[in-house]
């Protein structure tokens, strides 16, 4: 079996972060989002992986590499023809996939736990296709399955009136009849080749279509608040073995709960860190409180500040004598106190799509 992972798209709902970052490289618990997906795929026994990229993309390939760090082989392919829908991604990898069954994984989805059982269910159940579903409060944002007598009979994309309270998540498994199905469908009203129509082809042609419910946490990280929740979910899963404490920690600093501190970091006198928290490498924290569900990227400096439920990217400086919560602070950003310069007052350099609360 092979795996196709998404690495493209524009992620307009996450601007301004995604003006300069590929969404799939946004850190969750101090690790690029797509790394979590790759680790789960390899853990499930799949080591042949292809990742689609936007045309001209180079950073994704540089960060991920050839896959050897995971014992895998990773192939990259550019998405051609613009955004043609989710189903078009495997189609563009058809030559690479060949006759193999494959797992299609939307890498911006956070799934807790392993996916080994999912892959085994597909293999051992003799399935032609398998979808994963999760119960959600508002299915209208997602693809929604329709059930009759406990079996899925149809799959509808973003319906105005959902036939169930389940969403189809970003993990799909197919045999190589996927491409036969693809050649029969046409773009939807949105101008996209919908993955729902692939499944409907399998259902119409009496193929063995299975489904399994994700009963743990699943999160589609489409909005900033989703990223924060995804970060929270992953930090909650931190094991004692991952909560290593390296660097220099002042004897008067207090660390509570699961806290990871990377090499070269310095935790100063009187600092309080209340986990789960992940602090990267070469980070300086002085006269501050770091609260639960915070991840601080490499090279950052935090002084005279309280942080809680935040994602801080690399090389950020925060020194503001204030409490910051529920925030994303991008790479190389600086947040300082209005009292530190004259004249006093709030000073901003705010780009497109920014959100500020005062």
Structure description:
The chain has 9 helices and 29 strands. It has helices spanning 17-20, 33-43, 59-64, 88-92, 94-97, 116-124, 178-182, 195-204, 224-236; strands spanning 2-5, 27-28, 31-32, 48-53, 73-78, 102-105, 109-111, 129-135, 143-148, 151-157, 166-174, 209-213, 218-220, 248-249, 254-256, 259-261, 266-267, 272-274, 277-279, 284-286, 289-290, 294-296, 301-303, 306-308, 311-312, 317-319, 323-325, 328-329, 334-336. It is elongated. The chain folds into 2 domains: 2-223, Spore Coat Polysaccharide Biosynthesis Protein SpsA, Chain A (Alpha-Beta Complex); 248-340, Hexapeptide repeat proteins (UDP N-Acetylglucosamine Acyltransferase, domain 1), CATH 2.160.10.10. The mean pLDDT is 86. The termini are far apart. It has a 7-stranded mixed sheet. Strands 14-17-20-23-26-29 form a 6-stranded parallel sheet, with no helix packed on it. The longest helix is centred in the middle third of the chain and has 13 residues, at 224-236. By secondary structure, the protein is of the alpha/beta class.
């Amino acid at each position: 079996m092979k795996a196709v992972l998404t690495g493209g798209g524009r992620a307009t709902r996450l601007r301004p972060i995604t003006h300069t970052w590929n969404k799939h490289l946004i850190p969750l618990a101090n690790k690029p989002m797509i790394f979590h997906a790759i680790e789960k795929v390899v853990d499930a026994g799949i080591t042949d992986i292809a990742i689609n990229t936007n045309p001209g993309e180079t950073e994704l390939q540089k960060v991920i590499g050839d896959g050897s760090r995971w014992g895998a082989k990773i192939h990259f392919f550019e998405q051609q023809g613009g955004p043609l829908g989710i189903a078009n991604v495997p189609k563009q990898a058809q030559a690479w996939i060949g006759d193999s069954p494959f797992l299609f994984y939307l890498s911006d989805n956070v799934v807790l736990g392993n996916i080994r059982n999912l892959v085994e269910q597909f293999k051992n159940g003799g399935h032609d296709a398998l979808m994963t579903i999760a119960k959600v409060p508002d299915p209208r944002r997602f693809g929604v399955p329709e059930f009759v007598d406990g079996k899925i009979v149809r799959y509808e994309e973003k319906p105005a009136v959902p036939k169930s309270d389940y969403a189809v998540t970003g993990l799909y498994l197919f045999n190589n009849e996927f491409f036969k199905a693809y050649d029969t469908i046409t773009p939807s009203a949105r101008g996209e080749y919908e993955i729902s129509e692939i499944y409907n082809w399998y259902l119409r042609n009496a193929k063995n279509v299975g489904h399994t419910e994700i009963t743990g946490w699943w999160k589609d990280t489409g909005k900033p608040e989703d990223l924060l929740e995804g970060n929270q979910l992953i930090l909650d899963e931190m094991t004692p073995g991952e909560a290593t404490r390296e660097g220099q920690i002042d004897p008067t600093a207090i660390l509570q709960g699961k806290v990871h501190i990377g090499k070269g970091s310095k935790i100063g006198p009187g600092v309080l860190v209340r986990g789960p928290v992940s602090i990267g490498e070469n980070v300086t924290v002085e006269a501050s409180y770091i609260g639960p569900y915070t991840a601080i990227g490499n090279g950052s400096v935090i002084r005279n500040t309280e942080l809680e439920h935040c994602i801080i990217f690399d090389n950020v400086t925060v020194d503001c004598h204030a409490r910051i919560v529920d925030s994303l602070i991008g790479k190389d950003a600086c947040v300082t106190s209005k009292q530190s310069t004259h004249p006093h007052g709030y000073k901003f350099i705010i780009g497109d799509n920014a959100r500020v609360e005062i």
